[in-house]
Amino acid sequence: MTTRGSVAETVLDAVGHTPLVRLRHVLPENAARVLVKLEGTNPTGSYKDRMARAIIDGARRRGDLAAGRRVVEFTGGSTGSSLAFVCAVTGHPLSLVTSDAFSPEKLRTMRAFGADLTVLPSEGGQITPDLFVRMRAEVDRIVADEGAYWTDQFRNTDALTGYAELGREILAQARTVDVFAAAVGTAGMLAGVAAVLRAAGGARVVALEPATSAVLTGGAVDAHRVEGTATGIVPPLLTRDTYDDARAIDEGAARALARRLAREEGVFVGTSSALNVAGALELAREVGPGRTVVTVAADTGLKYLAGDLFG
User: Fold this and answer.
1) Which interval of the chain is the signal sequence (predicted)?
2) pTM of this prediction?
3) Which residues of the chain have pLDDT under 50?
4) Structural domain boundaries in the chain
């Protein structure tokens, strides 16, 4: 990996090195400082670039992914964009299974990088557990018919390698982390960062989820619109020793916060990132001054302009 100020030998070396910024205007009184890692500065505007690079690199290194072999995955958007980016650079054709429940900007980005898309219909644009079951079935068909390599993002431990680097960057920038909080999709990011933070001194790790799909906190499991999170299962990468506790965040409050972050902090993010910040603000109020709470802005608000988030 290159460092800032040096020339990247390939665009893959431009993944990472993202800024960590302190929130000032949306912070409640008598709260801990809240730092947000702006992953929207990665090449495709998402932290999933870290995962995609690590997964493809790992498979190629082990010989599981031969030169020119097709890759396949089902995705809610950012994983697809990131895999399409990495596969474009490394020369692998890519099939992605997705849905009209996810932002059109993400689907167009996948196609822009050359991926072949299968777009499944959703129930009124909602993200439901059944949607992921149907997408997985289509992946199985492509693997059987075309001999494609399935990256299996929900179980692929190579992802932890990519996200460990994110954890090391956070430590180097923040110096001290008392609480780390982030929403769970595949849980690779939470697990990868948590391992680094705990090895360095035992930060509290809090898993977040939308209250409308609250598998971790024992609430209702229903449809929601927080892309990239809450697939209706406890993902295999989220072992119980990965996190200390979990909490559910109101989706409506997160959507309102996304607009505040843009207008008051200049932090332009989507719903899942705003949910992360909402959880971090709650925790900052609870732990109080003199502590540091860190979360991640998973991607950029540019991926959500076609919807009603900023309308």
Assistant:
1) none
2) 0.90
3) 230
4) 11-43+163-304, 48-150
